[in-house]
């Protein structure tokens, strides 16, 4: 917390905020140094579903991407001490919707560790329903990069 307090004094309260405190990943199914599979259980109790959409609740696409980012951070935690954020998204495609009572299973594969400390990953999210084969809900390529804090001045 001393680091956070020092950054706030140096950069001002609007220039820096600590990491968000919500976790979308409920469990890690499998992990190797280059690959991770993790699950997000979707429940009707999740607050944002009341507005997305009241009569037809589905997991918002941005939350699917956030689940991918959180799984990516977990995968890359052994490779760097820096806090990683989403740097870019490429070729993002949405497919099947994920509804309450279903699971979003995300799978990320490390494609490349870059010289600037960023990482390129291939990501897929599949909706898992009872007694059905998983179907693609989201897929694309992402880059995770170290957080950059601009100097005040």
Widest sheet, order of strands: 1-2-4-5-6-3
What is the CATH topology? Thiol Ester Dehydrase, Chain A
Q: Which residues form runs of ≥5 with pLDDT under 50?
A: none
The first-level CATH class is given as: Alpha Beta
| Number of structural units classed as domains | 1
Q: Quick one: CATH superfamily? A: Hotdog Thioesterase
What is the tally of helical segments? Answer: 2
Q: Strand pairing plus helix content: what structural class?
A: alpha+beta
Features:
alpha+beta, 37% strand, six-stranded antiparallel beta sheet, 153 residues, Thiol Ester Dehydrase, Chain A, 6 strands
Task: Provide structural commentary.
- With 153 residues, the chain is of the alpha+beta class.
- The chain has one domain: Thiol Ester Dehydrase, Chain A (Roll).
- It is 17% helix and 37% strand.
- A six-stranded antiparallel β-sheet has the order 1-2-4-5-6-3, with helices on one face.
- The longest helix is centred in the middle third of the chain and has 16 residues, at 61-76.
- The two termini are 24 Å apart.
């Amino acid at each position: 917390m001393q680091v956070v307090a020092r950054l706030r004094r140096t950069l001002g309260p609007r220039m820096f905020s600590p990491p968000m405190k919500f976790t979308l990943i409920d469990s890690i199914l499998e992990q190797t140094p280059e690959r991770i599979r993790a699950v997000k259980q979707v429940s009707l109790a999740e607050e944002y579903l009341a507005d997305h959409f009241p009569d037809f609740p589905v997991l918002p696409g941005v939350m699917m991407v956030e689940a991918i980012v959180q799984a990516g951070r977990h995968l890359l935690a052994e490779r760097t001490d820096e806090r990683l954020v989403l740097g870019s998204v490429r070729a993002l495609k949405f497919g099947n919707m994920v509804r309450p009572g279903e699971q979003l299973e995300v799978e990320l594969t490390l494609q490349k560790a870059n010289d600037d400390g960023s990482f390129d990953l291939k990501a897929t999210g599949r909706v898992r329903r009872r007694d059905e084969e998983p179907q693609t809900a989201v897929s694309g390529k992402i880059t995770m990069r170290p957080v950059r804090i601009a100097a005040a001045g």
